[in-house]
Amino acid sequence: MSFGFFRKLTKPAPAPVLERDHVVAGRTLPLRIVENDRARRLTLRIDAGGRGLRITVPPGLRQGEVDRFLDRHQGWLEQRLAKVPDRPQVRPGIKIPIRGVPHLIIHEGGTRGTVRQSQDESGPTLLVHGDRTHLPRRIADFLKREAKRDIEAMVATHCQAAGRRAKAIRFRDTTSRWGSCTSDGVLSFSWRIMMAPTPVINYLVAHEVAHLREMNHGPKFWKMCEELCPDTERCKAWLKRNGGALQAIQFE
C-alpha cells in the first residue's frame, strides 16, 4: 500500500536512514525512513500484516518534511490500518492453516518437542509436544521444514520446464514480499506461504522461477508464469486478498 506526492528536487546534505516509532490511532508502530538515490517523491508503505511503516525519501530530505508528510496522511493510515486483520498469537486452542486447511493447535507435554499433523473427531489437528513456552517457535520451525521439502521439489519441476537453474533456495520470514529472485539466480521464499493452499504455493514458486528468464513483470514474464502455472490469475488474486492475514499471525 502506498501514497506519495511529487516534490521539487533539492541537494541538501544527505540524511541518514532512521528508525523510530510512530503512533497511529493508539497503535505504536516501527517506522523506517529509507533514503533512495532514485526516489523523486516520498512514498509511504504499510508492511504486510500492519507490522510497521516505511517511508522512502529522496536524498537529503529534511526530517521536518517527513513529519509534515506523515501528519497530512494520518487519516489515510488510520483507514488502511483499520482494514488490517487482527494479529492472532499462535497458541493452543486456535486454528492455523497448513496448505490452506485449518488445523487446531493442541499442546501435549513431554520432553520431545515434536510437531505432528493428525486428525480427530473435530477435524485436522496440529499436535505440539514439549515445553509450552516453545510452542510458537516449534510451529514456525515445522512450517520451515515443510516449506523446504515442498518448495524445493516445486522449484526443480518448474526450473526443468523453464529451462533454467536456480543457484540457491532460501527461506525467510519476510514482511514485504512472499518471494524474490536475484539476478544471479538465488530464489527466496517466505516460509509462511505454507499456510496458503497448495495451488497458491505452486503459483508463488512458478512466479519466482519465471524471473530466472525474465527479471521484470512485463508481458513475456506473465506469459512464462502462465505457462508454468495456468492458474496464475486466480492464485495471484487469492494471495492479494488473504496474504495480509497470513503475515499477521504472530510466531513470537
From TrEMBL:
InterPro entries reported in the protein's UniProt record: UTP_pyrophosphatase-like, YgjP-like_metallopeptidase
Q: Which domain of life is it from?
A: Bacteria
Q: Where is the YgjP-like metallopeptidase domain?
A: 40-242
Q: Which Pfam families match?
A: YgjP-like
- What PANTHER family has UniProt attached to this entry? UNCHARACTERIZED PROTEIN YGJP, UTP PYROPHOSPHATASE
Q: What is this protein called?
A: M48 family metallopeptidase
Q: Which organism is it from?
A: Aminobacter anthyllidis
